[in-house]
Amino acid sequence: MRYKRFWWVAIFVLLSHQFVCGQQILIGKVYDATTGDPLELVTIYHLNQKTHTHSSKLGKFTIENVYLGDSLSFHFIGYASKIIEISNEGELDIGLSQAPLKLDQVTITPSLHTINVFTDVDLKLNPVISSQEVLNRVPGLFIAQHAGGGKAEQIFLRGFDIDHGTDIQITTDDIPVNMVSHAHGQGYSDLHFLIPETIQKIEFGKGPYYTQKGNFSTAGYINLRTADKLQNSQVKLERGNFNTMRMVGLIDLIKSSKNTNAYVAAEYFGSDGYFESPQNFSRMNVFSKFVTKQENYLLKVQASTFNSTWDASGQIPERAVKNNTISRFGAIDDSEGGETSRTNFAVNHTQFLDNNCAIETKAFIVNYDFELYSNFTFFLNDSENGDQIRQKEERMIYGWQSSYHTKLASNFLPAEISAGAGLRYDDINNNELSRTKNRIETLSRVSLGDINELNAFLFGNIEIESGNFLINTGMRIDYFDFDYLDKLAVSYTHLSNTKYFVSPKFNIIFHPSNNWQLYAKTGRGFHSNDARTVLNGNTTRIIPAAYGIDVGSIFKPTTNVFIDFAIWHLYLEDELVYVGDEGIVESSGKTERSGVDVNITWQFNQWLFADVSVNMTNPKSIENVEGSNFIPLAPTLTSTGGLSLNHPSGLSGRISYRYLDDRPANEDNSLEAEGYFLTDFTMNFERKHWGINISVNNVFDVEWKETQFETESRLQNELNNVTEIHFTPGSPFFMKAGLSLKF
What we know:
By secondary structure, this protein is mainly β. It contains five helices and 44 strands.
């Protein structure tokens, strides 16, 4: 009898649900009233039912329980809000007009990604003007460069010294940037192949709470989306201090078609840098994209190629500067530097089964080469030739993902469901660490081998709305296959291992009004370990887990103020530290971090905005005793903010600050990495057919240390080793001006 009752209940629940794929509901489309282009992610509110929806990639939307006389409101950043009354039963075509940016265009919806509005507003006010500036746009994130302009930046976020990407997942148009089992460091993320003028949106999230985000997404994730269409073609020339030159061209290839767009962009950047030894930095980027939006499908195809070469002065010891052996911008070994290249090809196809059901398929191929010369310890290991090393590799990456998305309508619980599967395969050849001299002579090889690494995954996600609550739960399953062929072994040595990882997520949002939400996010995530460390037995934690929780609120106390506040905690089973000159990854044990994030945006009038982000963290190593449980270089207090001007006359600009507090440089805090406070300035004046821009970094010419490490080293004339801070000096006052022509 009990089982019969169960089946009757199950049948009742199934019958009470109607798939939106076949339900007769209000259907509409939102587009730019001037260009006719469909607008994605417009917020549509049903003012009578207090429900909402968003427009799809084709600008289409559906909304339930709409009757004659009901009212809908439409909101999108950069467009005038609109309210309409339903007067007939036909489909809706809604054109939105572009308007000066106002925070009253921003509405708070029950979504896991509402905080993205901070970067949406920021990009509308101040487009990205340099590749290094891209990551700095994420609230609470800092970057630092320590080996010439061609090396990937060091990243700080939520109390992490992430190195080059160990604990943050970075993608561009969903193409992975993090490199697994990289020659220089696990998760190495080089974004210099991205042309800043092509960036349209910065998507991000903090913590391991998102089902579609897998490896490295412990502290968070970032996905940079490029524009599908150019507003106009343009060429730009910029000149700056230190023999810096940048040339950019963006050409619209299809102007007559309404539904199909294609463009090509190219960038050249060169600079000698501010060091005494010229960096001879040179970078070339080419990017192209084709997009067609038809009635039932969306197709995007993109290809890009990038090459960069540079020299570097490296990290220098404090003692050499204090005793006047070298200046702040001098070098112990100025033969450092490198060369890297990357070519991407990607296809993204979305098939809309109807307005609420879609199948999305993505595929990509990446060809990547990397060669880096460094000298961290000078003459510590080799008193005659020095300690220069070469890290080098060649790799191909193949990836694919398919996912199904649908909305379910129910008299009780409307829901959105997504599920998918995919894989990433890295074919890495000649992953090398060698000891070298003057970037010419190879003295000895420390490691050399081929790595094959497969990551296959499944995920499922459901969002259920019930009254003022949104409940999100999901599960992700990752499978790893590690394979390594050691080319230096005396006998044939081929190692392999496999591992599964399960990542459950649960998030809940309370949304009492369009100006306020409370949220709690929980989840389990991970970062994978280097394949060589996995296979040589140096660690038992092949895929260290991360457990996180965020509790916070997003609200608008007035129409012109937007605030996000979060209290969070993150526990990691293991932290991985890359020892560059030895070619190994060491375990530093279990850690925990607790913190508070506060972000505020305030609009004073139609054209003047202010923003501030403050991030406080308490990072600790669990397995070490009190007093020796500091996490080296983990930031404890960071803050960014500024004033932005966006005047209707075409004048825009920003004065901003970056603050990083002092932090421990080693486990017992006997050495301290000095913090800094910097001020930057940008100004732009745009007309219909031309524009000028000026940017100034470090306006007040502050002496600061961009990166700092505790390092044991020995100079050529020293008898004993010395352990102290080694640093890369930050940029002095740097000014760059540019002229652009549009057509």
